[in-house]
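From the thread on structure requests for the teaching lab: each student submitted one protein with a one-line request. Submission from student K.M.:

"Model TraR/DksA family transcriptional regulator from Flavobacterium piscinae, tokens only."
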Amino acid sequence: MTDEVVRYSEADLAEFKEIILKKIEKAQNDLELIKSAYMNDLNNGTDDTSPTFKAFEEGSETMSKEANSQLAIRQEKFIRDLRNALFRVENKTYGVCKVTGKLISKERLKLVPHATMSIEAKNMQR
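Reply posted by the TA:
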């Protein structure tokens, strides 16, 4: 009986680790931009405009802050998912589908490095 090794090689894991680290760095920079936009309380010069326009401006600002808040939450989740992927690289379980136990394709992992399921498993969910 042959025990098939179902994991990526050390070289592959090193390559994925590099991809993940770059993605984490970019995602953290993006999160800082989102947070700075969210925290921006600069007055947009609506003090001298009519009350109607000021109300529109304030409503728009509120919607913007809500949208930025949602973006920040999504970005934080993305960073957490990437860090979990890094943990899986370290313990050599990275790239193994949590449903089928088969290797997730390299192409998929390069595009979605935090993936935990193969395309096959994702399609089974539908």
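TA comment: The CA atoms of residues 26 and 79 lie 10 Å apart. Residues 10-42+51-93 form one domain.
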